Amino acid sequence: MTGAASAPPPLAGRVAVVTGGTYGIGAAAAATLSELGAAVVAAGRRPEAVKEPIAGVTYLAADVRSYDDMQRLRDTALSQYGGLDIVVANAGISDWGVLAEGDPTHWPQVVETNILGTAYTLKATLPHLIAQGHGHVVIVSSISGRVAYAGEPIYIATKWALVGLGRSVRKEVAPHGVKVTLIEPGIVDTPMVSNTEEGRLELAQVEALTAANVADTIGYALTRPGHVDIDELMLSPVEQTL
Question: Which of 59, 67, 155, 220 is an active site residue?
């Protein structure tokens, strides 16, 4: 007597794109989605810097601040894998420093990456998801999009903007069978945080989330039953009580 055939991975046959997919949360998300059975295109400005490429993941040089690049990301998924079902809009950069002492020359990069980059990603991919009548968009925001504190005012402003963007887009696309999920992590031990003095000081105070923790949460949202949309998920270290 032969044993029952094992069930296919939950995302088998799905095609996903991940922005900011070459390091930190994005790289972990690409790995998790691949493990769950999806074909993945991971976009980043420096894909050549990926230390341990994942088998089955295609890496693409692309900048979310370029709408043309986001169209090319979409087209790569369609041409290489024949479809597009999942969009993880994760790319983002930080900006440390109180407003009175901040660097205004850096602020446009933060706004263009965090807000416009997400908008460009969705603009390039949503028409396809709407036309096919299904799909799932995951926007990686932050707990900083729900609370305010001194030290990262421009970054906080962009993350609050993503919460509003995500909730608005969900109302727009839900009638077309497309899901939208906001993921809002607290402090995560990623290069974006650990490469700055301010970030290292914060990491020393708590046992931070890992990129894998956030990726697991993304995977959870993407593997719910078809009629279930996880609107928002906030996760944070036990010791972080903003």
Answer: 155
